[in-house]
């Protein structure tokens, strides 16, 4: 089991100081999708303003494992 950290960058850095213990990178990848989905659901309209936000997944050594990027551009509501 290893500890993975899920850092959020949205005009400011929100570092995950505690991390989450998971069995492997595959579980960390699945958990990153869950975290991102919860953030999108909870933030509502905030993410529709054209500002990119990122979720960086790192391991215990601080190595960047994945970066998930989210950005909505163009196309207003009709």
What can you tell me about this protein's structure?
The protein has 78 residues and is α+β, with helices and mostly antiparallel strands. The chain has one domain. The protein is built from one helix and five strands, in the order E-E-E-H-E-E. It has one helix at 25-43; strands at 2-9, 13-14, 20-22, 53-58, 64-70. Strands 1, 2, 3, 4 and 5 form a five-stranded antiparallel sheet that branches. The longest helix has 19 residues, at 25-43. The radius of gyration is 14 Å and the shape is elongated. It starts with a strand and ends in an 8-residue tail after the last strand. The relative contact order is 0.25. The mean pLDDT is 88.
Summarize the structure.
With 78 residues, this protein is an alpha+beta fold. The protein has one helix at residues 25-43; strands spanning 2-9, 13-14, 20-22, 53-58, 64-70. It has one domain.
Helix and strand arrangement:
Blueprint: E1 2-9, E2 13-14, E3 20-22, H1 25-43, E4 53-58, E5 64-70
Secondary-structure class: alpha+beta
Largest sheet: 5 strands, antiparallel
Number of helices: 1
Average of pLDDT:
88
Question: Into which percentage range does the β-strand content fall?
Answer: 25-35%
Order of secondary-structure elements:
EEEHEE
Tally the structural domains: 1
Span between termini? 49 Å
